[in-house]
Automatic annotation (TrEMBL):
The organism's place on the tree of life at top rank: Bacteria
InterPro entries in alphabetical order: HTH_MarR-typ, MarR/SlyA-like, WH-like_DNA-bd_sf, WH_DNA-bd_sf
Protein name, per record: MarR family winged helix-turn-helix transcriptional regulator
Higher taxonomy: Bacteria, Bacillati, Actinomycetota, Actinomycetes, Kitasatosporales
SMART domains: HTH_MARR (SM00347)
All copies of domain HTH marR-type, residue ranges: 1-138
Native source organism of the sequence: Streptomyces blastmyceticus
Length: 146
């Protein structure tokens, strides 16, 4: 296998492993009703000034699918809707305390999930790898692959 194909396969394998491990660790922290897509949604809502339409764009889904996701997250206590100051038809989304707690659990899960990689590579090489990946990673939303 050439380097380009090896790199592609390895990055995809690591990405899948990371998502699965974060999901499992978040579930173990008492957030069993969350799925990985919720974390991608929480990242956009946490950034501020998010509407359901913004969330649809961020996730790469229809407005209807985003509306269903928002309704589920409101119903389960992770999100609130509040009036949008500039658009009477739109609602701003915000994380509830439960939503912030799930976000903190996911952040800690991500740190724990990559800890073995940091240990295997050593601190200096891990820092270099993060720097290298930062240079080549696309900018913009990190979204699930549908």
């Amino acid at each position: 296998m050439d380097d380009a194909l090896a790199f592609s396969a390895l990055v995809l394998a690591l990405s899948g492993q990371l998502v699965q491990e974060i999901d499992a660790r978040v579930s173990q922290q008492g957030f069993e009703n969350l799925r990985p897509v919720h974390g991608f949604a929480f990242a956009r809502v946490a950034a501020g000034d998010a509407t359901t339409a913004d969330l649809a764009v961020h996730l790469g889904v229809t407005k209807q699918a985003a509306a269903q996701l928002v309704a589920d997250l409101v119903r389960t206590g992770y999100l609130d809707r509040r009036p949008h100051p500039g658009d009477a038809r739109a609602k701003l989304l915000e994380l509830t305390e439960r939503g912030w707690a799930a976000t903190r659990a996911a952040d800690e899960a991500a740190r724990s999930a990559v800890a073995p990689w940091r240990e295997a590579l050593g601190e200096a090489r891990f820092t270099e790898l993060v720097s290298d990946l930062t240079r080549i990673a696309p900018r913009g939303p990190i979204r699930p692959v549908w």
